[in-house]
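Today's session is about reading a structure prediction critically. Students often jump straight to the picture, but the first step is always the sequence itself: look for stretches that repeat, for charged clusters, for runs of hydrophobic residues. Only then move on to the predicted structure, which in these notes is written as discrete structure tokens rather than atom positions. Here is the chain we will use throughout the hour.
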Amino acid sequence: MALSIQPSHADRLLLHPVTPRLAPMVCFALLTASCALASFALACATPFAAFAVVAAAMLPLRPALLVVTGSWLVNQTIGFGALHYPVDGSTVAWGFAIGAAALLSTAISSAVLRMLPQGRTPLAVTLVAAYAAYELALLAATPFLGGEGAFTAVIVTCLGLTSAAWLVGLVAACEIVRLLDPFGRKGAMSA
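Below is the predicted structure for this chain, in token form.
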């Protein structure tokens, strides 16, 4: 009888669509595919706060940061390669600011999830914290990069609701993967 011993960090993770061994790969695939879709559909409004929450809910901090970095790279590649963002200092600097904000949002998500009790409600609370960190990091860049006009209440609220919708969709995708068990999780656990 084979025993499945999960690492200690697995107890605090909220999303378990696959075994912990496959979680980084599945999370990376889910978030990069979602990022590609969001990048084409939303361009500069990619919901990195939602991505950060999902990564932090599925993975320990270091792999979560790597997965979010991968998603950001997909976003930037699509932006500059397919959507023809202008290749100038300001646009490139904003790209790095977005990446830094996404990583900060991931670190905040991981910290908040460690402090909150298990369940689905912590994902909503974590999204609020992650989104606030993300937007504040971007707002902090505006004195250097411009773009203060993008921080109106209407725009920030709309983007926050977009992130919430993406979070719901990503959690649903994780649950569907868990239920369909395409990687044989149930069979491996009962062996």
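Discussion point for the tutorial: Residues 1-9 have pLDDT under 50 and may be disordered.
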